[in-house]
Amino acid sequence: MKLFKIKTILILLISIHTFTSCVDQEPQTYIDEFSVTMTMPEDLGDSIHFANQTVILKSNRITYSAITDSLGKVVFNNIIPGVYNISTHQELTSEISLVGDTLQYQLFKKDSLVLQINKSIKANLIISKVYAAGTKDNNNKNYVADKYLEIYNNSDTEQYIDNTFYVGLVEAESVIAYPASKNPGFVFARQVFRLIADNTKDTIPPGGSIILTNSAIDHTQFSPNSVNLRIADYEAKNTTYSNNSDVKGLELIYSAFPSLIYMNLINGGDNSAFLFKTTENVRSFPIYYIPGKEQGNRYMRISIQYLIDGVETLKNYANTGPRIESKRIQTYVDAGYMFISAVSGYTHESIERRVDLKKSTSDRVYLMDTNNSSNDFRAVTDPTPRKYDKPLLTAK
What we know:
By secondary structure, the chain is mainly beta. The chain contains 3 helices and 26 strands. It folds into 2 domains: 31-121, Sandwich (Immunoglobulin-like); 125-394, no CATH class. The strands form 6 sheets. The protein has a 7-stranded mixed beta sheet with strand order 19-18-17-12-9-25-26. Strands 14, 15, 20, 21, 22, 23 and 24 form a 7-stranded antiparallel beta sheet that branches. A 5-stranded antiparallel beta sheet has the order 3-2-5-6-8, with no helix packed on it. It is globular and about 60 Å long.
């Protein structure tokens, strides 16, 4: 009898505690309404109202989407309070898009926003993959020789690579030296390489790509999660990693670090990269010390007018995540940013451009290009180059 009574009392106590916990729990608070009204570029007049377009509201926890009405206004209801990136995009013509973006919008009460819509020229050549994280080798040691960039022809015509194409890696000081907010019109590079053309691989067909790496060998023989880069088109020739004599060399134009003649792709980021084209003598572009200093690292200043494409990839800090104030690329080049989940890398994570499902066909892949890497890119754990059917890249 005593055992029965003890069990009964325990059951009653557990039931009372469970019921009390449910009663005491505060219900989730929602924001009743958040409206966004679009303001169009002045030269479009009243001819376009940005009607029937998707607007994305995205935080670290949740994503909302809604469709604009006939006047270009959208209303979100029952929103969880938080900090959101807001973005939208419309293809105006085959060459021009309309984009609107704002980052880190503080949404904690009923609110409204007027969002400026801007014209954006669609690039023929775009950076499609940034693989910098590295991985683990067969002995579970850090492996970093397999990093690469991929540049994709997203147009319907052949693109000719001549000696006026360059790729740059953006300044990545731990204390940001040249934030985009204080340097309108420019980007500051820690390295610049030129793509040298010849008569064998100087044309990129529609839907084709070129791969730039530090070591154009088959890295899978050293690491099961790595990649075969014998298919690479350009290699930053160096003595640190194994090179491939059958692959063309990238010409190093500038490096902030004289001992680094290969691409300085950092395992955990920042790894913002850009593609630019100019007939100017790039070696004569101005080089600056960090503001307030007269020694140490120096960075090459490049005018935004030369940029074809740019991708902002930021470091993922353990406590704060990526820091929006670390953006070095102007928002009209890349309104967003992307990052890998790891803090230090070695996870074979690659930042890769999503497939444009609306435009792609069974015969041809088109990639997303809204000038907002938060929308256009995803971090995947399969760094295989020239592969676009990865689930995260084809998800709606």
